[in-house]
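Record type: monomer structure entry
Structure origin: computed from sequence
Chain ID: A
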Amino acid sequence: MKPRPERMTYAQKKLMALIDERKLRRWCEENGFSHAFVFNLAFGNRAPTYKNIAAMCQFISPIEWLFSCDEKLPYEPVLLPPWKCDKPSKFVLAHRYDYKTLAQKYGLADSSAYKIFVTYTVKPSPAFMRQVCAEANPIDFFTEGEGEITPLREFVPDRGDLVSVSGKTVFVITKKEFNKRSKSFSGCLVTTDSAKGIKLKGVVKGVVNAGRLFSFPIIYTEVRSLIEKAPEDLTDKVMEEVRKTLE
């Protein structure tokens, strides 16, 4: 028998128990898994992928692949139906429009985040799923998301959203209900070369110039993504300056 890894995940420990009981081969045959592949997963010779974890959701909880046995699990293990990976998951769908913010927060390249959250051509890695455990249970990566998948060009922003529009950053001042009804929204341009205005302190750096108001069509303009949501107190401050400008 090969030497066991000194450190194992909870998932590896479960597979190793099947090996010790000489049940792994039969278990694999009954459930349609490659015995050699699962054996190598147990010993750490192969790293689990998103699709591997999805295929075994009914036997091993996703979170058990992400943490070692000497670590405390942040959530209770939950078994799920097998996930076919053909639809956007709950977590992925929830971050379709603010993927750039998520990318910056967790050190993902924008291009990689775009493929995960918008085109669904790349699957989240176990390392990434572990990173976001502070804000989401890993089961959210293996359960179907709710709601309509709206094309990015048709994304309807809300007051306080900072969005990218044809290469420009805009602070949205009109409310979502109005924007949806009128199929347009109004906002202030964010600039980096102005001494006047309201300074941003979040992901977006620059100054909101309340005197530079523009209207943008929703369907035809390049609203690529929600960059971030401004704090409520900052939004109130911007709206106060906008009202003064319009008086």
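Annotation 1: The longest strand covers residues 205-217.
Annotation 2: The longest helix spans residues 232-246.
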